Amino acid sequence: MADTELTDLNAFLRVADAGGFRAAAYRHGVSASSLSDAVQRLEETTGTRLFNRTTRSVRTTDAGQRFLDKLRPALAEIGTALDDLSGGDGPGGRLKLDVPGIVARHILPPIVDAFLLANPRVSLEISVTEGLIDVMAAGCDAGIRYSEHLSADMMAVPIGPKRQRYVVVASPGYLASHGKPLHPRDLTGHAGIGHLFPSGRVHPWEFERDGERFTVQPRERLITGSSDIQIAAALSGHGVLLTFEELVAVHLERGELVPLLQDWPQEFAGPQLYFPRAHRKDAALSAFVRFVGDHPIAQY
Predict the structure, then answer these.
(1) How many CB atoms within 10 Å of residue 39?
(2) Where are the alpha helices (DSSP H) in the chain?
(3) Partner of 114 at 20 to 30 A CA spacing, among 48, 53, 191, 251?
(4) Residue 250: φ, ψ to 5°
(5) In the beta sheet, which residues pair with residue 124?
(6) What is the number of H-type helices and E-type strands within the chain?
(7) Model confidence over 240-293: pLDDT tens digits?
């Protein structure tokens, strides 16, 4: 295959992953016009329209998506072969992950540090998105989520703590004015600080102990998808907050927030790294999956 043809294939892959010519150009430090020319040459060579272009979006056509699905592992194999020829030490390439905020803030940093040290030829690109997404459609190689519902072509392994928990907290000033809830049912009389999911939903708070289950919906004084705003509101005494323990650990230690309903522990399984079954064709992703499974820092 001629160099120009391989360049055009890479250009097509970059535009598809970035979701546009300008985004791909910015990400890879090239001009948008050069990417456009390369894709146009590829379309003329194959006689197939690969993208549907509008002023607001660039999306692969059905034929373009089928081509992309076959092209991605093929280019990864070529990259691996070139790495072998160049005598590189260890796997190389770029790995793109999408993770929720709690993972980005409290779980992933030590894992990223150790992985980059162990794999100097791998580059990481990490986006932070709340809620469920199709990582493949988003141009990512893998994702990290809680209780992910996986499709048949995906796999998952634990990453981070095996168990985590939610805590209910409020400021001392709020409790002095409104009283301390002693049972989940008491929360219905309190102002709540709710979490707004990307779907637009605000889930009720669920509690379970010894087979006894309660679902309550506090009177929401504030609803937001930002954990920083939620915590700031709780610290200022605007209501009761249900959140990840890691997010408020410092404030609990300082006495700025008070834990509530501790006899109703809310533990749940830790996050999962999920990825395609064909991950072994991608050197960088395969290296990360092995690292997560082999290193205690990724299973603390």
Answers:
(1) 24
(2) 3-18, 21-28, 32-46, 62-85, 101-106, 108-118, 172-178, 227-235, 245-254, 283-294
(3) 251
(4) -65, -40
(5) 95
(6) 10, 15
(7) 999 999 999 999 999 999 999 999 988 888 888 988 877 767 888 989 998 988
Burial 63-77 (b: 16+ CB within 10 A, else e): ebeebbeebbeebbe
Return the amino acid letter for 81: A
User: Half-sphere exposure of residue 31, counting CA atoms within 13 Å on the CB side?
Assistant: 4
Q: Which residues share a beta bridge with 96? A: 125
Q: Is the dihedral of CA 31, 33, 35, 38 positive or negative?
A: negative
Provide the token pair at 224: 């937001």
Encode burial over 220-235: b for 16+ CB neighbours within 10 A, e otherwise: eebebbebeebbebbb
Give the gyration radius of the chain's Cα atoms: 24
- The number of CA neighbours under 13 Å toward the Cβ of 65 is 11
Going by their DSSP bridges, the two strands 58-60 and 266-269 should be labelled as unpaired
pLDDT at 138: 74
Tokens of 94: 């770029």
CA–CA gap between residue 212 and residue 120 (Å, rounded): 51
